[in-house]
Fold:
Amino acid sequence: MFQSFDKHLTTAFFAPLARRRADHGGDLAIPILMYHSVSNEPEIEAHPYFWLNTTTGRFDAQMRFLKDNDYKVISLAHAVELLRDTGNKRNKHAAHAVITFDDGFRDFYLSAFPILRKHGFTATVFLPTDYITDHTRKMDGKEHLSWDEVAELYEQGISFGSHTTNHFQLKNLNRDDMNFEIRHSRQIIESKIGKPVDSFSYPFAFPEENEELTSYLTDTLTACGYRYGVSTRIGRASAQDPIFFLKRLPVNSRDDLAFFRAKLEGGYDWLHWFQLKSKILRAKLQHGKTRN
Ligand SMILES: [Zn+2]
Structure:
């Protein structure tokens, strides 16, 4: 029951509420979908929220849903433009969606891209660059893209952003190491694709409760030449989001079309409040522990 309480609450209660609100106008909100792996491999043992895989069948169905329901799949750059244009109001006749992939798994090339191409959709893939360079390194037992595949995908209209160099939880690093993770990964991708890299995706839970760190990261990302980014903060992206840490909607095999639709329409946005409160609580407990 607990395993799926967020799913039930979202589809049965919050999605209809969000739909009614959308019918009455409201601010622009863009769903930025967060995928990891498109594969039929067994899932990691964790709450379904953390699952990494979306089966090829389910991914295909989700993409078809976007197509059939007239979603305009736009690049992350375009979404940022729309969010920055404060005159923009939500227009229910032109629903937008952005597709992103974290971790740079090889199944993006093998399984996800052929489906995206079939529908004429673009996506942004965030690369932990050292895993792309060193193929002996694996994350959750999965293979990563090669630089040749990255170059080929880039030619075909896929965007690439940084997901740091080593995929560490940055908040646990000292400032020098943090800078290296952010700066080096961008330089490497640029040297491989020959174009500036604008976007960044923070690995793991984003420490949004830590304002000092958030502002330090913002300054560092700006100084390194990034222009915008995404995080694991839950919900649809809005103009109120910090530009480097836009909210996203996690998607995996658990997302049947009812749940997928509910997320796209704002039915999952309520979870961010719980996410933030639990981070603040955890930070307080941690602080108490280190003081005692
Ligand atoms: Zn990641």
Notes: Residues 102-103, 163, 167, 203 surround zinc ion (CB under 6 Å). The first strand starts at residue 29 and ends at 30.
